[in-house]
Write a sequence for this structure.
């Protein structure tokens, strides 16, 4: 039955695990962003969530994929990726493109997001440079996750029901497109404002 397929515990548990990481990220943002403006505190919440996902979910995926496959793994987090693999089978069988991207994501993006959190909390001059680099990396990762698959007709994607299509494939991947896109815009506007202030200061000093 459709209800059993969509609302099984196998589907609900990974969703609850992902949802539980949101208040944890927000609590960390409130703890470490006490002196930050409200917008930066909200941005910190996203980056803490980003870091949690990279290290607690994608990190284990990389390990499982390098020593075997998610489909065969008995790792405690294998059930989450096995459930997601029902929508995208590449995550079950150590697809080289996916594993390569995830290694880059965990190592490079993981380092960048920790550096960026530090830069925001301490108001460092390199904050927006790191933010731009990280957002571009995440947008590149999203593109390279799906574009090669689209070009060969998406044989590994299962869009047979709304849970797989709209929650697993669309929602969980779109947030890593929309949020980095908005953060790129935020960096653009912040750099523009800094440039305008510098020009105004220069004109006043003449």
């Amino acid at each position: 039955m459709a209800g059993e397929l969509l609302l099984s515990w196998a589907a609900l548990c990974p969703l609850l695990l992902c949802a539980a990481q949101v208040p944890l990220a927000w609590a960390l943002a409130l703890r470490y962003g006490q002196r930050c403006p409200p917008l930066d505190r909200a941005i910190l919440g996203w980056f803490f969530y980003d870091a949690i996902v990279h290290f607690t979910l994608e990190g284990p995926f990389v390990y499982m994929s390098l020593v075997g496959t998610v489909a065969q793994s008995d790792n405690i987090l294998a059930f989450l990726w096995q459930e997601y693999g029902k929508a995208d089978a590449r995550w079950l069988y150590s697809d080289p493109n996916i594993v390569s991207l995830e290694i880059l994501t965990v190592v490079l993006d993981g380092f960048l997001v920790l550096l960026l959190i530090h830069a925001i909390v301490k108001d460092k001059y390199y904050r927006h440079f790191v933010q731009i680099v990280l957002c571009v990396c995440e947008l590149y990762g999203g593109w390279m996750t799906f574009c090669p698959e689209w070009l060969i007709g998406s044989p590994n994607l299962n869009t047979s029901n709304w849970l797989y299509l709209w929650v697993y494939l669309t929602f969980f991947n779109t947030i890593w497109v929309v949020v980095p896109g908005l953060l790129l815009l935020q960096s653009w506007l912040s750099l523009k404002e800094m440039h305008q202030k510098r020009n105004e200061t220069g004109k006043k000093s003449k």
Q: What stands out?
A: The mean pLDDT is 93. The first helix runs from residue 2 to 7. The chain is about 80% helix and 0% strand. The helical segments are 2-7, 9-32, 38-67, 78-84, 96-121, 127-151, 162-205.
